[in-house]
Amino acid sequence: MINANAAQITGANLPYHALVMTYDDGPGPNTLPIAEYLSGMGIEATFFVVGKFAEKQPEVLARLLKLGHRLGNHTWTHYKEEGGLAKQLADGGDIVGELQQTADLLGAAAKPIPFRAPYGECPPAVAHVLSADAKLNADHVGHIHWRIHWPDWAGWRDGVDPTVVATCFRVAARTMEQGIVLLHDYAANDEVLARANRGAELTRALVPTLIADGFQFVPLANALT
User: Whose C-alpha in 48, 51, 196, 216 is 20 to 30 A from the C-alpha of 139?
Assistant: First the structure.
């Protein structure tokens, strides 16, 4: 269910040194390389997909599921105005449709479908509208937020090497000690950032360092209990 009070799931309830890998804004060119690598490492990630991209790549969604990953709902358009779904709602937009249209693409995905709002912004007014829709509420769980993050998209914008970005994530993980990790396998609202994305290289650099630090990777389901 979608929490009407906009309570966020961050993975703060996970055991010490347990991490959940999540990726936003895809699918894009880096999605499958990331998924293949993680699967080979025995790691289940959750990919929060944007419907307008996912619609054109059904084979990618199918492959993600076959590799053992989970699909999440990151809305249809990833509303680009500051304020995300709250601004879209204030502008008279159909935010229920934003989620439902993407959910319709994820028919083979495990239920409940994890939901993460654009920019991680799901204030009470938005959560109330979404949870009031019976089908949407029954099919989804969320809002899924995070505890461990560094603006990887800014790194790609500024030409920062993925190994440096990985070090920033490693520091964040050591600081927070457990939780949901947010990375990006694409960029929903900026074509330049989308082309510059180096999420696959970041993932390959980051995962071994986290393992060396004693972290373990768990499915998102572990954070939902």
Answer: 216
Element (H, E) at 70: strand 70-73
Which pLDDT belongs to residue 139?
94
Here the CATH number for the domain that contains residue 122 is 3.20.20.370
Domain contains 48: yes
pLDDT digits (tens, 9 = 90+) for 77-121: 998 877 899 999 999 999 999 999 999 999 877 789 999 999 999
Q: Tell me: the pLDDT tens digits for 50-64?
A: 999 999 999 999 999
What are the DSSP calls for 137-165, one per residue?
A: HHHEEB-B--SEE--HHHHHHHT--HHHH
Instruction: Note if the pTM is more than 0.90.
Output: yes
On whether residue 9 sits in a domain, the answer given is no
Q: Inform me whether the pLDDT recorded for 216 exceeds 80.
A: yes
- Give the span between the Cα atoms of 21 and 64, in whole angstroms: 14
The pair of three-digit structure tokens given for residue 216, joined into one six-digit string? 């373990």
Report how many domains make up the chain. 1
Determine, yes or no, domain membership for 11: no
Domain that holds residue 216: 18-223
**Which residues neighbour 44 within 8 Å (Cβ) at sequence distance 6 or greater?**
21, 38, 68, 69, 70, 217, 218, 219, 220
